[in-house]
Write a structure and sequence with these properties.
The protein is of the alpha/beta class. It has a single domain, classed as Rossmann fold. Helix content is 38%, strand content 17%. It is built from eleven helices and seven strands. A seven-stranded mixed β-sheet has the order 1-3-2-4-5-6-7, sandwiched between helices. Helix 5 packs across helix 6. The longest helix has 15 residues. This is Alpha/beta hydrolase.
Length: 257
């Protein structure tokens, strides 16, 4: 799995996982920041970013395949780990978390921990335009509209659109099928029962995630669970509020490592 790594001066590794039709570019400012003294690693999932040409088979783009490849990669990291996931990357992170022996913390954003079967109406907000992220070959108009709706400030839409167009179109249809076939685990239970400290970053203008559902998840969690609100922020906190995100990651990392 292609990845980018910047070695830190302090012990502890932060692993960032992007979402569907996105890429590691959404974390670039975070990884490049010298304010975070820990090792930072970003991955490009198969069919995304720098990992587009390496994979073309539909089996490479399933939730199960992503998890297997990520876990194999993580098991090679000889360090304590803080796991960070955005959108689909957050869903992957939740299901991976109990399997990581040296996990010290979990941060999700744009990610409601769903039940099984998936509780779409409870966990998500109705936003028809964002069905584009589950459509293999949408029109140019639909792609532009979805990118603009996903973020709060339109200046960030171009980055979302670029990643979307670069991704293998099959990643969207395979994910859609995984959702239809109910192939996600009971993430609500996994997240609640996880022993490691848990953090949810909530963009107050995120058009996809039900904010009240995240409050419910936070209240019913076992152990430490913190809800962090970002104003003027949509679905991509690391891209839309980079300075605040860097500060948040630095503070959480210093707590858990």
């Amino acid at each position: 799995m292609k990845h980018s790594s910047i070695k830190g001066t302090d012990s502890g590794t932060i692993l960032f996982i992007h979402g569907n039709s996105s890429s590691s570019e959404v974390f670039k400012k975070t990884v490049d920041s010298e304010e975070i003294p820990y090792t930072k690693i970003t991955v490009d999932l198969p069919g995304h970013g720098a990992n587009v040409e390496e994979y073309d088979a539909e089996c490479d783009f399933s939730i199960k395949s992503y998890q297997e490849k990520l876990l194999s990669f993580i098991e090679e990291i000889d360090d304590d780990i803080l796991l960070v996931g955005n959108s689909m990357g957050g869903h992957l992170a939740i299901e991976l978390a109990p399997k990581i022996k040296n996990l010290k913390g979990l941060i999700i954003m744009g990610t409601p921990p769903v039940k099984k079967p998936i509780n779409f109406e409870e966990a998500f907000l109705p936003q028809p335009a964002l069905q584009t992220f589950l459509t293999e070959n949408p029109s140019e108009h639909d792609m532009v509209t979805a990118a603009e709706i996903a973020v709060h400030k339109q200046e960030n839409a171009a980055a979302i659109l670029n990643d979307f167009k670069q991704a293998n179109p099959k990643v969207r249809s395979v994910l859609a099928n995984d959702l239809i076939q109910n192939r996600l685990d009971n993430q609500e239970r996994i997240f609640s029962d996880l022993d490691a400290p848990k953090f949810i970053i909530r963009g107050t203008q995120d058009p996809t995630v039900n904010p009240s559902y995240l409050e419910t998840i936070t209240k019913q969690c076992n152990g430490t669970c913190t809800l962090i609100d970002y104003d003027e922020c949509g679905h991509y906190p690391s891209l839309e509020q980079p300075d605040k995100f860097i500060k948040t990651i630095s503070e959480i990392a210093s707590q858990v490592f």
